[in-house]
UniProtKB/TrEMBL annotation:
GO molecular function: hydrolase activity
CDD domains, sorted: M23_peptidase (cd12797)
Organism placement in taxonomy: Bacteria, Bacillati, Actinomycetota, Actinomycetes, Micromonosporales
Pfam families named among the record's database cross-references: Peptidase_M23
Chain intervals with Basic and acidic residues compositional bias: 92-108
The protein's name: M23 family metallopeptidase
Group of enzyme by EC: hydrolase
Biased composition (Low complexity): 71-83
Native source species: Actinoplanes sandaracinus
PANTHER family: MUREIN HYDROLASE ACTIVATOR ENVC, PEPTIDASE-RELATED
C-alpha cells in the first residue's frame, strides 16, 4: 500500500510539473479581461507581421511545387501571361486592323489600270533651216540631171538649224555634197543639209527644231557659199520638192513656184 501511495504522489508531481512548463494555448495577452483591448491590438499587429513574413517567404519559395535548384522557375522570372480570351459577343475589333484593310483596299484600287484620256498628238514643229538666206536654185532638172533640193545662199558661216526634231543618222563628208548632215524625223521623213563649212552634231544625237547643227559653206561640188537643203520620203535618195513640203508644214521658202 505504501509503495502504491508513493508512486501515486510521484505521478501527480510529474503531471503538475508538465502543466507548469506547458506553453499556453493562446498568448499570455489573453490572461486577463482588463487587457482585452490591448490584446486585440497586439493580435492584429502580430497577424499583420505574420502575413508579411509569410509573403516574403512565399516570394522566395519556388513557384509551382517543391523547392530546390531543380524547380522549373523562380519568382525572379516573370510569370507566363495567360491567354486573353474575349468574352462572348466580343468581336475583337483590334484583330480586324481597319487601317490595314483600308491600306490594302487603296493599294488594290491603285493597282487597277488607270483610264487616261486620249490626247491628240502635238503637231510637228518645222522651221526654216536658214531663214536669212535667199533662194538661188530650186528643185528640178538642171544641167541634164535632177537638182534634188533647194539652194539657200547666205554669207559664209551663217548658222544652219534643224528643220524639225529628229535623230542625226549621218554627219560628215558625203561626196559632191561636201560636209553634209542627214536627220531622221520619224514617220518616214528625212532632211538633208549639204555644202557645210562646219558640222556641230554627231551620229545618234537627238536634235530639236531650230537647233544649231552646222555652218553654211561651200564644200563639195559648189560654186559658192550656200546650203543645199533636201527632203526625202521613206529613205535617203527619194527626194520630194522641199519648198512645197515645207509649205504644207507651215514654213514658207519663197522663191520657187
Amino acid at each position: 500500500m505504501g509503495q502504491h501511495s508513493s508512486s501515486g504522489r510521484g505521478g501527480r508531481r510529474r503531471q503538475e510539473s508538465l502543466h507548469r512548463h506547458r506553453a499556453p494555448a493562446f498568448p499570455a495577452l489573453f490572461a486577463t479581461r482588463s487587457r482585452s483591448a490591448l490584446s486585440v491590438t497586439a493580435l492584429s499587429a502580430t497577424l499583420a507581421a505574420g502575413v508579411g513574413i509569410a509573403g516574403v517567404a512565399a516570394s522566395a519559395a519556388p513557384v509551382g511545387g517543391t523547392g530546390g535548384a531543380s524547380g522549373p522557375h523562380t519568382a525572379a522570372h516573370a510569370p507566363a501571361a495567360l491567354p486573353i480570351i474575349p468574352p462572348d459577343g466580343d468581336e475583337a475589333p483590334g484583330k480586324t486592323h481597319p487601317r490595314l484593310e483600308a491600306t490594302v483596299e487603296a493599294e488594290s484600287r491603285s493597282a487597277a489600270p488607270a483610264r487616261r484620256k486620249t490626247r491628240p498628238l502635238p503637231k510637228a514643229q518645222w522651221v526654216h533651216p536658214l531663214s536669212s538666206a535667199e533662194v538661188t536654185s530650186c528643185f528640178g532638172p538642171r544641167w541634164g540631171r535632177l537638182h534634188a533640193g533647194v539652194d539657200l545662199a547666205a554669207p559664209h558661216g551663217a548658222r544652219v538649224v534643224a528643220a524639225g526634231a529628229g535623230v542625226v543618222i549621218s554627219a560628215g563628208p558625203n561626196g559632191g555634197y561636201g560636209n553634209a548632215i542627214l536627220i531622221d524625223h520619224g514617220n518616214g521623213w528625212l532632211t538633208h543639209y549639204g555644202h557645210l563649212s562646219a558640222i556641230g552634231v554627231e551620229v545618234g544625237q537627238a536634235v530639236k527644231a531650230s537647233e544649231h547643227i552646222g555652218d553654211e559653206g561651200s564644200t563639195g561640188h559648189s560654186t559658192g557659199p550656200h546650203l543645199h537643203f533636201e527632203v526625202h520620203q521613206g529613205h535617203f535618195q527619194n527626194p520630194v520638192e522641199p519648198t512645197a513640203w515645207m509649205h504644207e508644214h507651215g514654213v514658207e521658202i519663197p522663191g520657187c513656184a
